[in-house]
Design goal:
The chain is of the alpha/beta class. The chain has one domain: Rossmann fold (3-Layer(aba) Sandwich), CATH 3.40.50. Helix content is 31%, strand content 25%. The chain has six helices and eleven strands. It has an eight-stranded mixed beta sheet, with helices on one face. Strands 8-9-10 form a three-stranded antiparallel beta sheet. Helix 1 crosses helix 6. It is globular. It starts with 7 loop residues before the first strand and ends in a 7-residue tail after the last strand. It binds 5-O-phosphono-beta-D-ribofuranosylamine. The site of 5-O-phosphono-beta-D-ribofuranosylamine has 15 residues, from helix 1, strand 5 and helix 6.
Length: 224
């Protein structure tokens, strides 16, 4: 039985800068996010995200995928490392690894990812470049449950921005990243509150089936 004020145990997986991790840490420190990050695990040594975690007093682990001979071996070791912390929620925050079916099934319903596009558009890499090339008027980021299909799990929440004329992929990426930092803590909080659940291949939000992803049109910080 969980009490109202009990924090949900979470583990965060990263591969790089960890700016989404930072947004999640900041939200927990502000009291906007009712989770306790038990550990941050990176598959790459020396990345900035590990420093961010250490600065916040969070336990860090490095599991270098290059030291494993194949994907299943790495995923098994990763699962063991994660489960040591007994998380109720596993958060992928810029974790740049394809996961095995066994791993995904083990965390089914409690595994969230952020993807920098308005899914189902632009799965995979180079999403900003591809949104510009496709002349999309809108672009953004999606928070979704991870299922066996890459970038294909049901989407909880999307944040949208208008694509500007003559914008470079780097400029667009920067604006989408700001959006990511707003929507990920929000979606995680909904999960922690029990408002968002995965049921089969669809999402329940407040116990009702979500017909389409929730959507936030973002407040952008105007640069003078
Ligand atoms: C983000 O754009 C995220 O959507 C993608 O990888 C990037 C990670 O950025 N999956 P950061 O490490 O959180 O700064």
């Amino acid at each position: 039985m969980t009490t109202i004020n009990q924090k949900m145990a979470a583990v965060v997986l990263i591969s790089g800068s960890g700016s989404n991790l930072q947004a999640i840490i900041d939200a927990t420190q502000r009291g906007d996010l009712n989770i306790e990050i038990k550990a941050v695990i990176s598959n790459r040594p020396g990345v900035k995200g590990l420093q961010r975690a250490a600065d916040a007093g969070i336990q860090t682990e490095i599991l270098d995928h290059k030291k494993f001979t194949n994907r299943p071996e790495f995923d098994q070791a990763l699962q063991q490392c994660i489960d040591h912390y007994q998380p109720r929620l596993l958060i992928l925050a810029g974790f740049m690894r394809i996961l095995t079916t066994e791993f995904v099934r083990h965390y089914q319903g409690r595994l969230l990812n952020i993807h920098p596009s308005l899914l189902p558009k632009h799965t995979g890499l180079n999403t900003h470049q591809r949104a510009i090339e496709a002349q999309d008027s809108e672009h953004g980021a999606s928070i979704h449950f991870v299922t066996e299909e890459l970038d294909g799990g049901p989407v909880i929440l999307q944040g949208r921005v208008q694509v500007k004329i003559a914008e470079t992929p780097e400029q667009l990426a920067e604006r989408v990243l700001q959006v990511e930092h707003q929507i990920y803590p929000q979606a995680i909080q909904w999960f922690a509150e029990g408002r968002v659940q995965l049921e089969g291949d669809h999402i329940l939000f407040d116990h009702k089936r979500l017909q389409e992803p929730l959507s936030l049109t973002m407040k952008e910080h105007q640069k003078q």
